[in-house]
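Q: Trace token order:
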Amino acid sequence: MTNVSIFLQATPAAPADWVLFFGRFHPLIVHLPIGFLLIAGLLELDRLTRRNTVSPHTITLILFWSAVSATMACVFGYMLSQEGGYDAEALSSHQWQGIAVAVFAWLAWAVKSENLGRLIPFAQLIYLPALAVALVMLLAAGHQGGNLTHGSDFLTQYAPESVRTMAGLPAKQNEFKAEPITDVNQALVYQQIVNPILQTRCVQCHNADKSKAGLRLDSPDMIRKGSEDGPVFVAGKGTASQLVKVCLLPEEDDHHMPPKGKTQLTEGQVALLTWWIDQGASFDKKVADLTTNDAIRPVLAALGGESAGTNGSAVATTGRNTGSPAPESAVLTMKLPAVDPKVVDELKKTGLLVLPLSKEQNQLEVSAVNARTFNDAQAALLPKLSQQLVWLKLGDTEISDASLAAVAKLKNLQKLHLERTGVTDAGLKQLKGLTNLEYLNLYGTAVTDAGLAELAGIKSLKKVYLWQTKATAQGIDNLKKAMPSLEIVGGIDEKAVAEFAKANAADSKTETDKKN
């Protein structure tokens, strides 16, 4: 049972640091009365049902410490409440439930120890009711504490329908699921790209039930409203916006978000948030309506498995919805043998999408966008389409260098996506025989300078994506010298992120100095 027994709303004045310091110990303290009261209740139940003899002194001692620890939990909970950011109604309810636990625990102890019996005749008659009320209030306060911390449906979120019906709970709401992106150009930037990031990384602490720092990130209106300190983004200035700044701070910094211990945003997600704000933080525009750059194109391309364009305004589409592929590549103008339908069905059983690029020329695109568990063993099926397979997208799958032996047999392959897979330099050696390969996406792989040297042997190669690989500037420079016409796309590196964080720290210090 997770509890955050917080009792009073934060006052307008900023609380002292020592108050907040001790308040953070509340989650530790609050488990003491839970344990003590439950033990006391079980001992009394055992005594009543089995007529076992339990030393009155033992139960009295347990009740005493349950009352003391419940009182301490109240005090520490009050201190923690000074941080603010909790729903006022839920906080008030939790406040009185927590106080009731302490009051009835003291009352049960006073009766059991006979201290109250000396003053009030028949005091023993209220002992068991007092203990029962303390236990009921304990459960209620614990549940409310969980709601304050994790949301109102934390305990019931995964309850089966049969349990929900018996408990009189409403039907289970659909969990948040990001809309699939099939054409990244037509993707709604906020709804399909930005909101999924916020929902999975930020909304747990910034929602209707719990709005740390007065900030909610669960809807466009709330995002626009900002926090108690003001707006969280400045349209057109991504790295100057608080929403991005807190993500770039060192993880050890108290202001870093998400807090240390929570699942962090990837560099790609930070880049997407920054790009969205740089482009005006629109809540209704599509990717095609905004301007992209070399840093963001591979990140966008990875979202939908699409190839990144060079037009500066969007990500190039596959051609499935807009006609035939660009005619400048000879392989895209070839008329190839018809594919065996049985082979197509066999590949589809692995979860792969098999899509026609041109029905007249029998060219195919194979995509693992819905087959993230696609592996080396299944990759052995790919050579069955050795002639027809022109575009292959295996990004974010479980393949390794072993799969590239099969890929190397796809003699008409023009585009190959290997982003965020287990391929290494050793695997790239096997691609030298792909004389039609023009596009290669290695974003997020462990490829190094040695692997880049292998690419120099693929003379047909026109564009390669190396964002977040282990290639160095020297390795990239050597590849450019070996292949002057090759377009190499990189992105935001760790040095840039460190510089952002350093600038952030300096800005924070300046603001603090001004306040002081």
About this structure: The chain has three domains: 17-167, 176-291+493-516, 326-491. The CA atoms of residues 108 and 413 lie 78 Å apart. The longest strand covers residues 353-358. The beta strands are 353-358, 363-367, 389-393, 415-417, 439-441, 463-465, 487-489.
